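Can anyone check this?
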Amino acid sequence: MPGAPARVSWELGGPRGMFSAMQAYEREFVDLLVRYQAIRFGDFTLKSGRRSPYFVNAGQLRSGAAIAGIGQAYAAAIERAALPCDLVFGPAYKGISLAISTAMALSRGQGDVPFGFDRKEEKDHGEGGWFVGTTPGDGMRVVIVDDVVTSGQSIRAAIALLKRAADIEVSGVVVAVDRQERGRTGNKSTLHELQEELGVDIHPIVTVRELVDDLRERRVDGVDALDDARYREIDAYLRTHACGCDAKPLVGQSAHTTPALFAQTHVPPRETRKAPSQSPSSAT
């Protein structure tokens, strides 16, 4: 079984929330979301029926360059959180490409890192079982990668499946964006409630507040991704429906040291198209 991963050396600049400026890999990740329209601004109806002025869909990252870039971001987040990782696990279906690209990115900075994902139905022929890729084994420290926490059901199911298969430890969960929406209790976010329920830390690459505050201050590939009117709509929405989402003051640009992992794969700019103002009613 692989040993604990070697830390990649790069400048952190302090823990999340200590400084308003984003880390270089976080800003590169925001650029990636904008370029491939994985973050869109407009008027969207969520599965819950709530109207939202923004929509995150990691499924838009569906080219080689895009998925390489997102793997670098997840790997950098794992390194920043110092999560021991013997296996990167992605819940099917969206977690499959995330697990593969993250393991590839981690393996560039250290020894070979296994990945695995689950089947929707147990296979009763050939190699059989629930797992594709590396099967979890006793003593493994597993990092779960997923896109966005909505209800948390996919993460709950993944942890239950892994623990039925072997005596593993879930080192942590990494997700793309924390929507910071209020949970059932009303005074904590869904993500924080899920952390307490499962006893596992969940690490977003960025929060929605960090994302919109960053885009408020700058352009992406020469294009204004978020205008003042949209920003005010999102700010009002977050103040109503989210926890810990007070707006930050505008900050100046700061120099950052790019994480070694993220620097190895640069995603070239592509034309940024204006996002439509409507989305299907199944948006999450």
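Reply from J.R.: I decoded it. Helices lie at 24-35, 64-80, 94-109, 153-165, 190-198, 208-217, 228-241, 260-263.
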